[in-house]
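Support reply, case 0932

Customer input (verbatim):
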Amino acid sequence: MKFVQYYLDCLSHASYLIGDPTSGRAVVVDPQRDVSEYLADAAEFGLTIEMIIETHFHADFLSGHLELAAATGADIVYSAVAEPEFAHRSVADGERHSLGSVELEFRHTPGHTPESMSIVVYENAGAAPYGVLTGDTLFIGDVGRPDLLASIGFTREELAEKLYDSLHNKLMTLPDETRVYPAHGAGSACGKNLSTERSSTIGEQKATNYALRAPDRETFMALVTEGQPPAPGYFVFDAILNRKDRPLLDEDAAPPSLTLEQTREALADGAMLIDGRSPEDFARGHLLGAVNVGLEGRYAEFAGSVVPSDVDIVLFVEPGQEIEAKNRLARIGFDRVIGHVGDPYAQMTAHPEQTARASRLTPEEFNARTAERDDVQIVDVRNPGETADGTISGAICIPVGQLPARVNELSAGAPTVVYCAGGYRSSVAASVLRQRGFGDVSDILGGYGAWQATTQTA
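Our regenerated output:
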C-alpha cells in the first residue's frame, strides 16, 4: 500500500493519498486547494486517482475537490448525509470500496458536523485495520468541536451528543493498534487541545485524550463545549463555499503587477492592501493603509480573520512571492486578488509621502510609557485560553480575529499599545487599527512573554 500524509503547517491541515500499487488505483482524502503535489506523486507512483473523499464540509480551508476532479476525472465522495451543490457520489455508513488489495470502509461519524465521516483503511481485505482517517471527529489529544457555525440547524449540545456516540460506537471499537490520522494538528481552531503529533493509535488516544477519558456522556459534553478558541471570521464563508460549485484555482497564474497609482485607486474603491512581509520589515517602512499579515506565519488564517471575504485584495510581497501569496489566500477561498504592487521598494522610494513606519516598543519602553502616561489604551489580542493565564493590568482583551467587529470598543484617539504572545498577531492587529484611523498605535516586541520576563527580572 502507498500511504502518504501531506501537512500544511500554515493551516495545520493534513490530507492523504492512499493507493494500491498492484492495481494502480488511488484516492485522495481532504485535499488542499492547490493540487499539483497530489498529481505529481500519483504520476511518480504509477497511480490513478479515482476518488476524492471529503470527510465533511470543511470550515477552516477551501478544499481542492473540484480542482482535483477536473484534473483527474475522479468522483467526489461524501457521506450520504451531505448535500453538496455539485456532482458527487454518496456513500452509506459501513459501505466498502476496494482499490484491489487495499480496502476502504466508510463510517459515518457525525458530531463535529452532521455529515462527518471517517475512513477505515485495510491494507489487505480481511486483515485488521491499518488505520483510520478521522477527519475532524478525532484529533490527537482532542476531538472535533461541535459548536462551529458550519453546523447550521443543530445546537452544539445536539452535535456533542452525536460526537460522543460516534467516538464510542464507531471509532473506539476499532482495535487499539489501529493508527489514527486526523485532518488537523496543533494550531487549528477546530479544537482546543490538538497535539503537535501527526498520528497516533486508538489505544493511545483511549489512554491519553482528555475527551475520550470522560467518565460519562454529560462530562464529555461539558468538556468539549467549553473553552473553545474563537473561530476565525472566514469559517462560515468557507463552510458554505465548500458546498457550492465555484471557479477553479489556476495555481500557476501570477496576479498582475500594479503601479502605486493603480494601487491607490483600488484602495479608494474599497480594496485592501495586504503586506506579507515580516513584522520587522513592515515596521521599517510600508505603504499607507497596509495591513501586515506575514507570509512566514499563519498567513491565510489571519488574513481571513481581519480581511472581509467580499473585498478585492492587493498584495505587497517580496518580489517572486506573488504566486505563493495568491495561492495561500486561495486556500481559504479568498480569490479576489486583483494584483500586487510591482517593483515595491522602488515605488516606496519614489513616493515617501505614501509610506510610514510602525512603532514597536520593547517591554522596557512600554513600561516607561505607561509610567509616564495614564491614558495608554492596552489591547491584548490573544485567545481566551491564553489570557486566562494572565494579562497586563488594565488590558482590554479582544482576540485578533474579533478585532474588526469590535473596533468600536476602543478609542481611536487614545495612544494604543497592542500585544500578543510573541509579536506576529500584534503586528496584524496594530496595522488593522492604523488602517481604521487610529493615529498613535504601537505593539510590544516579543509580546506578553517578553514583557513578563522583564517584570520578573525587574
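We compared this against your earlier run and they match. Two observations from our side: The chain has three domains: 2-241, 257-356, 359-457. The longest strand covers residues 13-20. Please reopen the case if you see a mismatch on your end.
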